[in-house]
Structures are given as structure tokens and as C-alpha cells.
């Protein structure tokens, strides 16, 4: 085939291939146009998942009669003029492509009336056939109607999913746009039935609650930061409301919904250790940066952007979220479910009676040492001057500068039950603490601070400790050398299947961890999972393991002094509500929940 110019229809359909992936993309482009036209109210109507009908009506600036043909022509826009304009885009659209693209794969009708005009104008396009504009009636504003989407592109049509799926995508697209533009009233009807109705003039906060669900309010922590030309507002969800998908993550840059790797990474990083890595936090971020510091012309649907300084944005997002999480009390509340039916008296009493007596029986049979005790000594230990710290023996300098946060308050009574849990209280209710999980977090933070200052303190052994290993693990030892040095361990191969440990980490030593156990576990883990190529990540994983080994275990009886110290450190370290793997260390049973359960209200 000789080289030839493509007919305009094909050119537009190629452009449509990028911009108009599915009905939700049409809705996005049309609503963005309405927002750019300064509309205060936008109504979207769809039928059959947008396949049969998408209609977007706005009360914005409208299009003059003489410009109707240009509006649906490719590369025609009223939003930019010169190359310089491209460097500082403040509108959502600028490519002048959307209407032409949509029209090339559907039957499109546009009716528009500018504010001052006496009457509206109408233009109809279907594939490459266009009707002359003609006068029409209608209120000020613009209505774009798109019927039979992809009627002439069967390949695209085949990729559409069920009506419910496409409707869901449209709803989420609108919710995202609505979050970014809280003052614009937005309504969606599906087959004439309203499914979304957001009033005009909402504050960003009210809009967030309206879209995410008002019941989430107590779970959302406000965010605010202005730093190095980046302003951030929004909400960070408590770890409990994290989801299995990123559906509840909304990031806006200058009002535009975007997905950006640096930002996603910062969000993940901020929640690290507070969430299981497979969960995604609920978060709404509104970023404002100088339009000149970001290139939005890198993606056809403008979903991705390029920052001039991604690291500045990364740092800002990370510190905004971290700060708000740090300032909050992240102890998860226990919800015991519906209040039991007290009024039914004897009727329900029998079932309940069985449960209670079984529990009482079990408790009676327990060894007295397992039942737990009220430690009035704990209180004394807490109040005593200059108490020893649980880990002080190991890392003097590092624990001493764990700053005590201003939330510190003395604990009154504590009970250790089943040698595993500590039960105490604060002003909001009852706290149930998993001693191992909490101590693991404390150990982890202690180790993090210590390695931040240099290699961990090391202790030379009088006689090297010999560890039998698998011959294939000898090679791994070489890969781990740098890591071992940082955690204060010196180990050399000693024959084809043995390792000699010459020096061991003082911290682990003093927490009763034996060198052979630790080295073997480290090598086994490296064999199983490989050594992380990122040295910082590999170090974190190892500190994690060290914290777990060094921490008190479930089943360890703790002395009053140890309990006092653990509770003190709960106040002192960051992220004490979760262990390094994201599981809770503490649960709170609030006074309200207790009153509800006991039928006091
Ligand atoms: P872009 O938004 O990139 O400029 P579009 O193809 O989406 O390109 O729209 C072309 C032009 O049509 C816009 O620049 C604008 O002038 C006009 N337009 C489109 N939709 C509307 C609307 N809802 N209200 C007013 N003008 C509109
Ligand atoms: Mg547009």
C-alpha cells in the first residue's frame, strides 16, 4: 500500500482509542468540559451502562452558535493558544480532542446556549456525517447527548462489561470528580432513577463525607501541610478502614484526579507497619502546586502527570500523612456487636448461663499463676524515680532518647492475664494489650533509632559460636555480609557446612537470643525468600525479625517492673498501636461500649 493520508474519521477514531476507552471515559470528558465552563450544576443521565445513552447537562458558559462546528472538530479548543500555555495548564481539558473523538464512535448531539444569547444552537454528528448547526430552544448552558457508543467500532464494543459494571465505573468516575470539585452540584440518574445527588456549594469536608459515607467520619483524620511549594489538604483513614482495593484512595492535583507513582509510594510508606501490606488505606489528598511545576501533558486522559520534582511531592505527602497518623490515637476499638437481650430474662438466661459457667469453670481450673494479678506494685514502679527500662541494658543510648510524647499519663492498675495480655484502662475505657505485639513494636522502634546512628553495638565472643548450615547457605553468607555488619554480627564460613560467629549483636545477646538460633533463622529466611536487593528494605526485614526474637513472648510472666516499663514505652514510641506487621497491639473497649453491652443505656 502506498503512503496516504488517513481520512479524518479514522484519525479521530484512533484518537478515540486513547481517550474513549469505555462509557465512563465519555462521562469524564463531558463533565470535565462542564467544570471548565464554570458550571455550578451538572446532571448526568445514563442508560444501559452508558452504551445506549449518556447525557450531560450543565448550566455553564455555553458555546456561541458560530463555534459549534469547531467544538466538535479535532484539535480545536478555547482553553490554550500557545506553547507557553501548555506549561501552565489550569483547565481540566486542553487537547481539543474529546468531543471529536467521542463523536467519531457514537451519535452525538450538542445543544448549547451562552448566557447572553436569545436562543440555543444544535449540532449533530454521527461518525463522519455532520449536520449543519441550527437554532434550537433550551436554557442557558450545554447539553451533550451520546447515543449508541461504539456502534461503528465493534472491537471496542466487545470489551464492554456488564451493565452493572459499566454503571459502577461511571459512578466512581463521577464520585472522584465530585470530590475534586465540592462546590459543584452533581446528579446521576440511571434509567431516570437518581443514584447520586450531591448538592452544590458543599465544603471539601462535607463533600468527602457525602461521597465516602458519613459513618466514616470518626475514622478520618484531617491532613494539612504547606511545604516547599506543595499544599496538602485532605483526610487519612485510620488503619481499620483500609480496603482490599485502592478504590478508596483519591488523589487530586490542582483539582484533577491523578494517579502518580511517587504519591502512591508515599501513601504506602506512611502506613508501613500500620497495615498488612495487602491492604490499601482510605485516603483523600488534595495537592496544590504551581501549575508550572507539573506537566499534565503526558497522558491522553491526563490521569498521569509528571512533577518537576517528584521527591519534593513524595516527601510532602509522606510527612503530611505521617504527622496526622502520629498525632492520632490509633488504638482500634472493640465492638462487641449488638447489645444482648436483657429484658427476655430467664428465656435467654439459660444459654448465657451455660457460657458463663463454662468460662468460670475454666478459670477455676487454671493454675493460680495463670489467672493474673492486680499489680499495685506496677503503679509504684511507674511512679518511682528513674525507672529502669526493659531494654536499657541492651541499648542504653538509644532508648534514653526515645522522646516521651506529651500524651503520657500515669497508668493506674494493670492486670496480666494468661501471661500474655495486659489489661489496663485510660480515660476512654478498657485497654487490652498483646504483650508480645507491643514489645515487638517497642523493640523495632528502638532498633530503628539505633541503626539510624550507625552500626549496632557488637560483642566479641571468647570462643566463636559454631553454626551448622546447609552447604548452599555458605554463599548467602557472603551476600549478607554488609547487613550483618550493620547489626553488629561478624560471621565467617568455617568449612563446607558450618559458620563461625565471632561477634554478636549486644542487643540480641542481652535479650537472651542465642547466636546459632539467630544465624540459622536468618539464613533460612534468605534461602526461602531471597535477599532483598534494596539494602534498606533488607535491613528493615532483619530488624523486624530481631524485634520479634527479642520481644517478650506470649506466656512469659512479666515482673511488675517490666510491665510498668512496657506501658511507659507504649506512650513513648511511635506507632505503638500496631506491631511491625500491622497487627494491633492494643484494643480498646470504650466505656460507651461497656454501657451498651451491660444495658446501662
Ligand atoms: P478541550 O476540552 O480539550 O478543549 P473538547 O473537545 O472537550 O476539548 O471541547 C472542545 C471545546 O468545546 C472546548 O474547548 C470548549 O470551548 C467547548 N466546550 C465543550 N464542552 C463544553 C461545555 N459543556 N460548555 C461550554 N463549552 C464547551
Ligand atoms: Mg474537554
Account of the 3D structure:
There is one protein chain. By secondary structure, this protein is α+β, with helices and mostly antiparallel strands. 37% of the residues lie in helices and 21% in strands. The protein has 22 helices and 23 strands. The strands form 5 sheets. Strands 1, 2, 3, 4, 5, 6, 7, 8 and 9 form a 9-stranded mixed β-sheet that branches. Strands 10-11-14-12-13 form a 5-stranded mixed β-sheet, sandwiched between helices. β4 and β5 form a beta hairpin. α15 crosses α20 (535-550). The longest helix has 20 residues, at 346-365. The structure holds adenosine-5'-diphosphate and magnesium ion (MG). Residues 29, 33-34, 37, 58, 60-63, 71, 77-79, 93-100, 142 line the site of adenosine-5'-diphosphate. Adenosine-5'-diphosphate binds next to α2 and α5.
Report mean pLDDT, rounded to a whole number: 85
Query: What sort of overall outline do the alpha carbons produce when their principal axes are compared?
Result: elongated
Tell me the strand percentage band: 15-25%
Low-confidence stretches: 343-375, 385-411
Round the Cα radius of gyration to an integer and report it: 32 Å
The CA-CA distance between the termini, in Å, is 83 Å
